[in-house]
Amino acid sequence: AIQMTQSPSSLSASVGDRVTITCRASQGFRDDLNWFQQKPGKAPKLLIYAASTLQKGVPSRFSGSGSGTDFTLTISSLQPEDFATYYCLQDYTYPYTFGQGTKLEIK
Amino acid sequence: QVQLVDSGGGVVQPGRSRRLSCAASGFTFSSHGMHWVRQAPGKGLEWVAVISYDGSAEYYADSVKGRFTISRDNSKNTLYLQMNSLRPEDTAVYYCAKDRSLKGLGEPDYWGQGTLVTVSS
Q1: B45, B95, B106: residue with CB nearest A98
Q2: How many CB atoms lie within 10 A of CB A6?
Q3: Which of A36, B64, B71, B119 has the least C-beta neighbours within 10 A?
């Protein structure tokens, strides 16, 4: 199975900051990488699919990039509602695998 | 709008079985693959299984292969997860999720609210 390693595991930032979360795959693929946001007690929400395509209704401050083994999620200007846990998911091959998550906290 | 309602969770003894259901509405259920994803208490997300729009293809995580079976009833707009030989490490919130692709298999987009399965004696 492809291993997905996210970094950092946790991150403290302030409203207005620009933050970047990285996901590294144990083997490369083109763009079969997705990003999810999860708030406590809630189901995950799809933010970005195919590495860089914004899901409908997701604010444009979220963006994704990358291919091969290295992918990034960037939030250009953090808003209070963005403090949550973020996960990457590869859907290149079965079994699909998630990264371990990045908890984004308020500084 | 898309709605997915997970049900069937509860406390179950190790070695026993449980069937989860997911009632879908707000989209053409028979045109989309469906996923199960779980989350152990305080832990990250783990993809469990996927079934194609017509039920002709199924794929599983290694941790559940041979014990869990995903299925669907397109006439009832309902997804199922039959869980056999349950272990304490299967304790988790189980989410069903709709696949974003039309008649293909890709990433999950809309998710249910989850149902908690606790495996304990």
Answers
A1: B45
A2: 20
A3: B71
Chain A residue numbers with beta carbons less than 8 Å from the beta carbon of B98 are: none
Interval A42-54: pLDDT, tens: 999 999 999 999 9
Q: How confident is the model at residue B12 (pLDDT cuts 50, 70, 90)?
A: very high
DSSP code string of A68-102:
EEEEEEEESS--GGG-SEEEEEE-SSSSPEE---E
**A 49-88 → B contacts, CB under 8 A:** 49, 55, 87
Per-residue pLDDT, B83: 98
Tally of CB atoms within 10 A around B66: 9
The answer to whether the beta carbons of residues B94 and B20 sit under 8 Å apart is: yes
Of A43, A49, A87, the CB nearest to B100: A49
B60 — contact with chain A (CB < 8 Å)?
Answer: yes
Please name the amino acid found at residue A84. Answer: A
Nearest CB neighbour to B45, from listed A44, A45, A49: A44
